[in-house]
Amino acid sequence: MSQRTTPVDARTLTRAAARAAGREWRASRPAGWYRDVMADRAPDPVRAATREEAIDVHQLRSGHWGRSEQYLHRIGRRPTPECAQCNDITCPAGRCLVCGEAADTPAHVLLECPCLFGPRLQALGNITGTARDVQRDDVVAALAAGYAAHKSRVAPSPPRR
Q1: Where exactly are the structural domains of the chain?
Q2: pLDDT of the chain along its 161 residues, tens only?
Q3: What angle do CA 70, 74, 77 make, to 5 degrees?
């Protein structure tokens, strides 16, 4: 049968276009720690209990978390006398205010920060997380809440302008 005479309905065309667009989008996503965790799979929609938890999950996944000193310093919202703004992950201005051991990147907060052993133990049953563990929204939300609780006790953020 000739391809020109084969009928194709709109639904079939729409689904094929959506699949092609999805493949192209997944292939064009920029490299990042969460892409390494999720591979080619797009994250499922966030089913958090509150809007704030959903925001934390989305921002941590994207690497643009509003509670991260490293991110805020990188975008120029936390300048210091020594360094106004930089993208250097080893810059002291971007260190984790909770533990002070490393920059508070999403990978540090979710997998490495020693001050979050308690929340990690409650969420995972283990004090060390794996990349596979942070695919779950509830784990990311629990660790973000634990980080916020520790940060509020250790070093309150400066007032927002």
Answers
A1: 49-154
A2: 566 677 788 899 899 999 999 888 777 766 777 777 777 677 778 887 899 999 999 899 888 899 999 999 999 998 999 998 998 989 999 999 889 999 999 999 999 999 999 999 999 999 988 888 888 889 999 999 999 998 887 655 554 44
A3: 90
Q: What are phi and psi of 103, to 5 degrees?
A: -65, 145
Tokens 């975008």 identify what position? 75
Residue ranges of the alpha helices (H) in 5-155?
Answer: 10-28, 33-38, 51-62, 69-74, 106-107, 117-124, 137-154
pTM to 2 decimal places = 0.73
H or E element in which residue 23 lies: helix 10-28
Distances (CA, A) of 56 to 2, 61, 107, 128, 138: 53, 8, 14, 20, 11
